[in-house]
Amino acid sequence: MCLGLLKCVPSVGSSLTPSRQWAGTAAIVLLFKDKELDRITISKTAPTVTVLAPNGGEVWSGVQTLSWSAADLDRDVLSFTIQYSPDNGQSWTPVAGNVTGRSYEIDTDRLPGSTQARIRVLVTDGFHTAQDDSDAAFALADKAPRPFIRRPQAGDLLFDGQVLQFEGDAEDLETASLPDSALRWSLGDQIIGVGRKVEAQLPEGRYEVTLTATDSKGNEGTARMAFVVQAPLGRLAAVPAPGGVVRLGWRATQQAVLQSAPDASGPYQDVALPAEVDGHNLVVPVQAQEARRFYRLLLVP
Questions:
Q1: CATH no. of 146-230
Q2: To 10 degrees, the CA torsion angle through 131, 136, 141, 143?
Q3: Is 249 helix (H, G, I), strand (E, B) or coil?
Q4: pTM, two decimal places
Q5: 1 confidence band (pLDDT: 50, 70, 90)
């Protein structure tokens, strides 16, 4: 049957009828406005293929080598397509296409685990096709889920007192979708929530959150993300005054606490100095001997 821009060229002494489909066709030509774009010459015989491994009974894990034999009386160039079935041939998933050798290395960790696994190899000479499946089922080990964390990320600006959003999910080769109950969030030994989205409030500090995904067979996978919770800082102005005094000021509308530390990285402690009202600002005079310390304004939620 010839459709669209395909033109079937019959061999000498033959004719085409719809019932015979491709019978007697010598070539298939792709045309565009009577210009030949491509041509497939049809060989007389179809190729054959036989799966050698895995062919039934194997237990595979990690990187394995699929192998098969193939033959073609016309000595055409053959190409192969590989498919995988986890359910004894009820459904098939593409693994690789346009393979030209007689073997192919495959990472079985990327395929769903199964005790009813089969491999199919299809061969084509450009026109004729043939296929062969594993004679019997083989086994691939179950795979642990692969969780991933969307939020938070390492560079996010997170603050003490803020409600932090934790969001993630997991891929599972054997299950289309894991339930929320399969996802567990923890900080060290402390569980902070279950599900794809959880919330928490954390004080200032450095943290590493762990998302653990557990499938129905108890296989676990984990993902981790380090992040920093910062102090919610207000705007602090420093103005030099006579005698080496520094006047630290901020808007009176900011509910805040002034803190100081001997080093920029802390530890910071509250400053027990009285504040003066200066217009719309609060001002704390810092004497010269204390002016070499580091100061920050910590907002109070």
A1: 2.60.40.10
A2: 40
A3: strand
A4: 0.62
A5: very low
- Tokens 């399969």: give the residue: 182
Please say whether the structural domain 48-140 has been given the CATH code 3.60.40.10: no
* 48-140 and 146-230: identical CATH topology: yes
Instruction: Tell me how far CA of residue 171 lies from CA of 174, 182, 196, 218, 244, in angstroms.
Output: 9, 12, 12, 15, 62
| Nearest partner of 117 among 133, 135, 92, 138, judged by Cα | 138
Among 65, 74, 84, 83, which residue's Cα sits nearest to residue 40? 74
Calpha distance 192→177 (Å, rounded): 22
Domain range annotation of the chain: 6-41, 48-140, 146-230, 237-299
**pLDDT (tens digit per residue) in 212-252:** 999 988 999 999 999 999 888 788 888 888 888 899 998 88
